[in-house]
Description:
Blueprint: H1 2-26, H2 32-41, H3 51-79
Helix pairs in contact: 1-3
Amino acid sequence: xxxxxxxxxxxxxxxxxxxxxxxxxxxxxxxxxxxxxxxxxxxxxxxxxxxxxxxxxxxxxxxxxxxxxxxxxxxxxxxx
Length: 80
């Protein structure tokens, strides 16, 4: 049963990440993919990262993924 729990949580985290990246795109905020791709092409890319991007990447994105994991755990508890 533990594998099923991990699978459900993993699926919810994946869906949460997809939705968070869509939201970031709509709000014109950099995602982790944008940041890493920009840094791999140009080390001065840090100059293009503003406070809004930093707050999104370090506060709200992990919070949304954590909430996704929590939701996955709740779904597993309700089903099993």
